Amino acid sequence: MSPEVFVDILSDALWLVILIVSMAIIPSLIVGLIVSIFQAATSINEQTLSFLPRLIVTLLALMYGGHWLTQTLMDYTEKLYLSIPTVVS
């Protein structure tokens, strides 16, 4: 295996990890920002008010994006398996 092929595979894998993680994290960050602005405006310092909406949004994002996430991982795995003959030779 040449270093260029290894770097390409690693680059694709890292991009896929960033894409999958951002699908779950970005909605949670947005809701957390909205809740923190609400808490700053109303001077409410309740920790569960910040935790529960982020948890619910993260679970909803994983529920709605689960099919895409699974399909993306399966496509990448299939691509890796199909590239074995070119990598080995």
Automatic annotation (TrEMBL):
<keyword id="KW-0282">Flagellum</keyword>
<keyword id="KW-0975">Bacterial flagellum</keyword>
<feature type="transmembrane region" description="Helical">
    <location>
        <begin position="51"/>
        <end position="70"/>
    </location>
</feature>
<keyword id="KW-1003">Cell membrane</keyword>
<dbReference type="GO" id="GO:0005886">
    <property type="term" value="C:plasma membrane"/>
</dbReference>
<comment type="function">
    <text>Role in flagellar biosynthesis.</text>
</comment>
<keyword id="KW-0812">Transmembrane</keyword>
<dbReference type="GO" id="GO:0009306">
    <property type="term" value="P:protein secretion"/>
</dbReference>
<keyword id="KW-0472">Membrane</keyword>
<keyword id="KW-0969">Cilium</keyword>
<keyword id="KW-0966">Cell projection</keyword>
<dbReference type="InterPro" id="IPR006305">
    <property type="entry name" value="FliQ"/>
</dbReference>
<keyword id="KW-1133">Transmembrane helix</keyword>
<protein>
    <recommendedName>
        <fullName>Flagellar biosynthetic protein FliQ</fullName>
    </recommendedName>
</protein>
<dbReference type="InterPro" id="IPR002191">
    <property type="entry name" value="Bac_export_3"/>
</dbReference>
<feature type="transmembrane region" description="Helical">
    <location>
        <begin position="13"/>
        <end position="39"/>
    </location>
</feature>
<dbReference type="Pfam" id="PF01313">
    <property type="entry name" value="Bac_export_3"/>
</dbReference>
<dbReference type="GO" id="GO:0009425">
    <property type="term" value="C:bacterial-type flagellum basal body"/>
</dbReference>
<comment type="similarity">
    <text>Belongs to the FliQ/MopD/SpaQ family.</text>
</comment>
<dbReference type="GO" id="GO:0044780">
    <property type="term" value="P:bacterial-type flagellum assembly"/>
</dbReference>
